[in-house]
């Protein structure tokens, strides 16, 4: 777990496949520009030459993230794809099966491509400790738009967890309510475990702000808030309001480079709602 690679690299690969399919000029932003800290990750994983990202601005860092105490239902996500171990963030959400975790689509499926194995959720992770145990998944779900085409507009997934010591996840750590088809431009607080520099991935961070549409790629239909969390924070929950007790309404999906001052998340509309309903009622 300590050596797991940020799952953001998988979203980068998905965008690269999309570029190859439609032509580089048709996508205005390259994968390395979109996902922070990917240059070094790609070098390590694929042995390809990639430029190291510029150091994050200290001024940006002070304004767009905050340290948080651990929250019982928010945790780190670990998984394996293509023989590589990755790390993301996730959240326990209310569900009929009492065992559903939300995360980014690229944290459980290559987009397009294979689903992950060894998917494990560690709620309230802190400095290597797992105070509520390590929960393994028995089923993974994402939108068909992500699993078939890597469409960043639908970059959300849900994992159904096995019981642990005879107990269900939400009975142990609690669960967040969810909301879909909400008004745009709401105030949010997002959480995650950013692992790329200047963060370590060992503790929970947050970002807060009023959501605004992505001006660079409006076709994604995403919204962004002020945030400089890096790779590893992918899949962390967005809550409506100012605390982790609000309704979850998105996840951390992407930002524009290592000096980015905004984090973008998918709009949770009817498509993502359908995926949630399938996962949350699965046995």
Automatic annotation (TrEMBL):
Leader peptide range in chain numbering: none
Presence of the UniProt keyword Signal in the record: yes
InterPro entries cross-referenced by the UniProt entry: Glutamyl_endopeptidase (IPR050966), Peptidase_S1_PA (IPR009003), Peptidase_S1_PA_chymotrypsin (IPR043504)
Protein name: V8-like Glu-specific endopeptidase
Organism, as annotated: Arthrobacter gyeryongensis
Keyword line: Signal
Keyword Signal: yes
């Amino acid at each position: 777990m300590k050596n797991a690679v940020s799952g953001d690299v998988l979203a980068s690969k998905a965008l690269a496949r999309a570029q190859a399919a439609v032509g580089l000029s048709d996508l205005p932003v390259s994968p390395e520009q979109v996902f922070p800290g990917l240059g070094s990750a790609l070098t390590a994983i694929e042995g390809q030459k990639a430029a190291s990202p510029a150091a994050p601005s200290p001024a940006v860092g002070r304004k767009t993230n905050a340290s948080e105490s651990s929250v019982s239902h928010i945790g780190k996500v670990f998984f394996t794809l293509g023989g590589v171990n990755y790390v993301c963030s996730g959240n326990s959400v209310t569900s009929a099966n009492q065992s559903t975790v939300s995360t980014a689509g690229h944290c459980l499926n290559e987009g397009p491509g294979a689903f992950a194995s060894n998917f494990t959720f560690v709620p309230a992770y802190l400095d290597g400790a797992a105070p509520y145990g390590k929960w393994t998944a028995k089923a993974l779900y994402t939108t068909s738009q992500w699993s078939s085409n890597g469409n960043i507009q639908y970059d959300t997934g849900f994992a159904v967890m096995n019981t642990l010591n005879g107990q269900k996840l939400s009975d142990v750590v609690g669960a967040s309510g969810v909301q879909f088809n909400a008004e745009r431009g709401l105030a949010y607080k997002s959480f995650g475990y950013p692992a790329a520099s200047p963060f370590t991935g060992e503790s929970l961070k947050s970002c807060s702000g009023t959501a605004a549409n992505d001006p660079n790629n409006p076709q994604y239909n995403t919204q962004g808030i002020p945030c400089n969390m890096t790779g590893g924070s992918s899949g962390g929950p967005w809550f409506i309001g100012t605390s982790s007790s609000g309704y979850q309404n998105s996840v951390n999906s992407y930002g524009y480079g290592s000096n980015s001052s905004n984090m973008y998340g998918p709009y949770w509309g009817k498509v993502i709602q359908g995926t949630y309903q399938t996962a949350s009622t699965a046995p």
